Amino acid sequence: MKLPVPNPHVSDLRPYEPGRPITDVAREHGLQPSQIAKLASNENPLGPSPRALQAIRDSLEHAHLYPDGAGIALREAIARTHGLTPDHVVLGCGSNEIIEFCYHAYTHPGQGRVLASAYAFAVYGLMARLFAVPFEEVPDRNFHHDLAGFAARLRDDVRLVFLASPNNPTGTRIPNAELTAFVEKFPAGPLLILDEAYHEFIPEPPPSVSWVKEGRPVVVLRTFSKVQGLAALRIGYGLARPEIAAVLQKSRQPFNTSAPAQVAALAGLADTDHVRKTVALTDAGRDRLHAFLKQHDLRFIPGTANYVMVEVGDGDAVFHALQKQGIIVRPLRSYRLPTWIRISIGTPEQMARLEKALPQLLPAKK
Fold first, then answer.
1. Which residue ranges form the domains of the chain, and what is each CATH number?
2. How would DSSP label each residue in 140-161?
């Protein structure tokens, strides 16, 4: 039987590689899931807010009903938090879906260009290939965004520009002064997407919401997957001037965010104490990991979010060896960084296990 022929840009696509699930690693190595320390996917080791968990339980009684397709209550709460209106807010199945909306609404197959930094989040380029849009990586400066390099490439055919701060997987942030100067000189025509999935973890974050209020051509991406600990529910949002947000809304599937996700995000948004606890645990764990890596003379990129990128010699080998001990990290070969791994910040107990296991796997010093 002859099968339909898929589009070449889809058939040749290499899918995104997520961190390995706990259950798979436990089964493969004869461990119990409770023995696994997952330090691979930048998740919140404290889990969701207790308020969010209760909201999820309460919502299940109405699981037979469709969710609010417009997400009015959540959009209103997000808008109040940022001093915006609900017309500035677009909900997504994770902030990833907002990236997809931007491609749907502002690109054409085979035309224009999309810009992102080398070693930036893989989904930017994956979406470009999925939509058959030319994708151009801007070389970085020692794992930092080179904004001068971006500015030099901002010609008339550029449709989307992605800047991530903090950036995944490198963990570096763009200094506020540099980012502000870039945004203020950003030309008419392209859409600038500021990916701020980890913005709660950085002190003195950039004034990105003010750029939305000023009506600049920006979309600010935020998520409930990281500091809020709701990664399994896939809920995020974008902030943009109403005219841009309205266009992105047209790209959205009906009921793209579930009722449990909406109510959990709404409850989590109000639980600022849980956010403070998460940030405090992350700050302490990141400082501890930095000190450990210095002690063992390992090259690393100082993190500004809830993960640290470390050079270990053979990233794949260390990744597999740690799994045998019930520790999952993220190898970075798919980012063209085969000698590096990314380590998420976990609980003190999880970080202690990593500190015990990792030195045994490193090449001997000459």
1. 8-47+273-361 (3.90.1150.10), 50-270 (3.40.640.10)
2. -BTTB--HHHHHHT--TTEEEE
